Amino acid sequence: MNEMRQIMADTVEKLFTEHVTKSLKEAAEASDFPEKLWNAVEENGLLHILVPEKFGGVGAEFADAEVIARGIGRHAVPMPVVESILANWILASAEIDIPAGMTVLAPVRAEETLSLSAGKLSGTATRVPWGRTAAQVVVITAKGDVALMTAGAYSVTENQNIAGEPRDTLVFEGTAPAATGRLPDGLTAASVFALGAMMRSAQMAGAMEWILDASVQYANDRVQFGRPIGKFQAIQQSMAELAGH
After folding, report:
1. Which of 32, 125, 213, 244 has the maximum number of C-beta atoms within 10 A of its C-beta?
2. For residues 227 and 220, what is the distance between their CA atoms, to the nearest angstrom?
3. CATH code: domain of residue 63
């Protein structure tokens, strides 16, 4: 891990250890968005990690952003940080000014029928993370158009994923975007989808790291038949298999 990534890892670990408490998670599950934590993430520059320096960002690489995603997964951060990181990167790539407030990226799927014609966006975006809360949503069409849509310019049907996180359906009915652009050469809707999947995988890896740490701690703390259960070969084998994954 290079110096940049180590600094990023230390910042993320300190920030989320301090702020992501049991009570915060319980409040988030009750639809109380953690504004204080969001502001702290924004103040630490995490949301602009991939944005080039000339646009006011950090200008880091995806490998650096992956460190953030792992930390988010490890601490089960109940906010669309990864989705906002990607949204801001897409806006900068399309040379669109990055607005203030929460901006998320609508998932890019081949089956979506979003289209930008005569300066108006039409279609439906499904499973948009925190679509009900975001101030803006970045939408990418199959043809590579990028549209920045502000809250109120689309209807929202609230849904959630298996983890209880907001995954909403947004409907655009010939709405004029706040700004438009194009994906640069070499970047397509499909490649953006792949990058999003990579970042989600990093979150999953972080969550698995926490599971391993918690399991090892429990195996060392729980005593059965006069000794910690972590001393039993069957438990040790299970821990080894988990570590291997």
Report:
1. 125
2. 9
3. 1.10.540.10
Of 45, 79, 113, the domain-final residue: 79
Instruction: Classify the phi-psi angles of 84: left when phi > 0, otherwise alpha if psi is within -120 to 50, otherwise beta.
Output: alpha
Asked if residues 81 and 167 have their Cβ atoms less than 8 Å apart, the reply is no
Residues of 122-144 as b/e, b for ≥16 C-beta within 10 angstroms? ebbbbbbbbbebbebbbbbbbeb
- Count up the domains in the chain and report the number: 3
Over its length of 245 residues, how does the chain's per-residue pLDDT go in tens digits? 688 788 889 999 999 999 999 999 999 988 899 999 999 999 999 999 999 999 989 999 999 999 999 999 999 999 999 999 999 999 999 999 999 999 999 987 766 779 999 999 999 999 999 999 999 999 999 889 999 999 999 999 999 999 889 999 999 999 999 999 999 999 999 999 999 999 999 999 999 999 998 888 988 888 888 888 888 888 888 888 888 87
Q: In this structure, is residue 63 part of a structural domain?
A: yes
Q: Which two tokens stand for residue 123?
A: 């279609």
Tell me whether residue 90 is in a domain. Answer: no
Contact criterion met (CB below 8 Å) for 167 and 160: yes
Q: Establish if 193 belongs to a structural domain.
A: no
